[in-house]
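Class prep. Protein, please:
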Amino acid sequence: MNLVTPQAYAREITAQAVSGLPADFRWGVATAAYQIEGAAAEDGRTPSIWDTYCGVPGMVVRGENGDVACDHYHRMPEDVALIADLGVDTYRFSLAWPRIQPGGRGPANAKGLDFYKRLVDELEAKGVTPWITLYHWDLPQELEDAGGWPARDTAYRFAEYAALAYDALGDRVKHWTTLNEPWCSAMLGYAYGNQAPGRKNFGEAIHAVHHLLLGHGLASQYMREQAAERGNALDLGLTLNLGTATPETQSHEDAEACRRADGLGARLYLDPVVKGSYPADIVADLAAQGIELPVQDGDLAVIATPLDVLGVNFYRGALFSGVTEEGATTDADGLPVTRGVERDLPRTAMDWEITPTALTDLLVRLEKDYGLPTVITENGAAFDDTVSADGEIHDADRTTYLADHIAAVAAARAQGADVRGYFAWSLMDNFEWSYGYDKRFGIVRVDYDTQERTLKDSAKWYRDTIHLTRNA
């Protein structure tokens, strides 16, 4: 029998994929401040909600935290050299709000800004384009104490912080993303309680949705105005975590479950940002639960400040049913059932189904319904990597995952989706939020005892794939 190895399969699928990607397709890697920087109490940085959350017993695996993480704050130049050696043209990273504006109010912290200025210096020297995310979940704890994202004032505080960051870096950095995955900030943080700050109130979470989007809009307005005034180039975006919702059967109940899942997971964010209004069906669903979005006059116009690019973080598509396994159509609270259905599919170490064709479907749908250029700002997988006797990490499963999803991007482009780049998540193993250091998403291994970085096979494959695309 002629068996095809995962590495050979990845090479074959890559050759097919890159044939549909243009030479100017953007290739990158992505990280987030709290997950890699460490130096949690250095140079004026104050606690974020994640510092606090990590200190609550039982919230994070083994009680771990980001105090040291990958020590990127001290190892940044060597990490930038590693990024450049991968051949990527873009590095997407987030700024730490409590490092730049300790406490979430007042003037900028010069030492905090200096770190990011040095980072941009290093990237420019290596020919790598910086792509800044303003908010990747590290709300200053003082703002959470004052109400957090369910409070309207937090949107204004975010806009103030964004102005400090843009004023310092906007003349040198073109690519800006306001928020990373506001669904996670709102729902995981305020509705389900399994991420910082760990609150569980669905109504407050919906208020957080609106104030996150309002903060996005206010920050976008400022950057638009300042870019025009100063003559700065600006590529402005918002990053959403998006998937697909497929009904288990053709029943009305399953179709309604998908409508609700897509509405709360995607359209509740996309519609106001792109179309200037919240989806009427979801507004009605919320009203039936006694919940209203706290919209004030003028808010939606602010939220709909034009974007240049939509960042798409994709990890999986999902199958939904509108009935319980016992056949009920309402849950214990009397609400319609929206149940995710598990399938017999390959999975990552996060127990997430691997569904690359769903990425193609998603990108084509986004093009059709919203018409914005897209960049895959995160895509990747955690697997249980092992270091072989030769010191190498032969992560064929991750290599295949990346190859399949890059091929899915190429397929979407072939169907007319304006996808302009792909950023692998993540550059290196890091603090994986509530999972602590238990899950490894990196294409570069980090030995947390020594902080040694080692390219996994997937990193070498990614480097070679980028080279192949540019020289196709």
